[in-house]
Amino acid sequence: MATERKREKISFEEEMEVYKKLGTPGEAHKLLARMAGSWNTLTRSWTEPGKPPVESSGVCEQRMILNGRYLQQECSGDMMGSPFTGVGVTGFDNHTRKYVSTWIDSMSTAVWYFEGPAEADGRSFTQKSRYDDPVRGPMEWRSVCRLVDDNTMTFEMYGTVLGGTEEKMMDMKYTRRQ
Q1: Going by C-beta distance under 8 Å and a sequence separation of 6 or more, which residues neighbour residue 127?
Q2: 10 falls in which pLDDT band (50, 70, 90)?
Q3: CB atoms within 10 A of CB 63
C-alpha cells in the first residue's frame, strides 16, 4: 500500500476511543448548523467570458443530519432556462481537518466530491474538486461558501481548465426565508 503508516500497537478500547473522539461533532460543525434552514436563492451563471451572467432564482432546504455531523441540502429552481434540482451533503472531517462535500443534480449524472480547509474567519470554507468535464476536458473547480450573517450566505464557484486561467462560473446568494 503506497500510503502505509507505521503505528504503535494500542488496545481495542484505545482504538475505539480515538474513533469516538473523531466522530464527535465540534466547533467546525457549528458553522454548518448555522446554515440549516429554509433559503431563497439568487444564482448568477457566466456562460461566456465577457458576457453578462444569466440569473435565476430558487429555494434551498438545509438541515443537519446524523446528530449534527452533516448538513444536507435540497435545492430546486431554474438553471439557464431549465428546471433544476440538486442534493448536497457537507461535513467536517475531524481527522483530516477539512470540510468535505458531495453534490448531485439534475443536470448531470456525476457525483462531485469537494474538500478543503476552514478559513481563519470561522465563517467560511474553500473547497476544491477535479472533474473531467465532457466539453472542456480535465478541470479543477474551487468553491467558496461563506456565512455572511445569520440570514445571508454566499456560494461562489470557479473553474480552471488544466493549464488555463481560473474563471468565475457562478455565484449564489442565499437569503433566509422568514
Answers
A1: 99, 100, 101, 114, 115, 116, 142, 143, 145
A2: confident
A3: 14
Handedness of CA 9, 12, 17, 23 (dihedral sign): positive
User: What is the number of residues in the chain?
Assistant: 178
Q: pLDDT tens digit string along 109-124? A: 999 999 999 999 999 9
How many separate helices (H) and strands (E) can be counted in the chain?
Answer: 2, 10
- CATH H-level, domain 12-176: superfamily: Calycin beta-barrel core domain (2.40.128.20)
pLDDT in tens, 58-97: 999 999 999 999 999 999 998 777 899 999 999 999 999 9
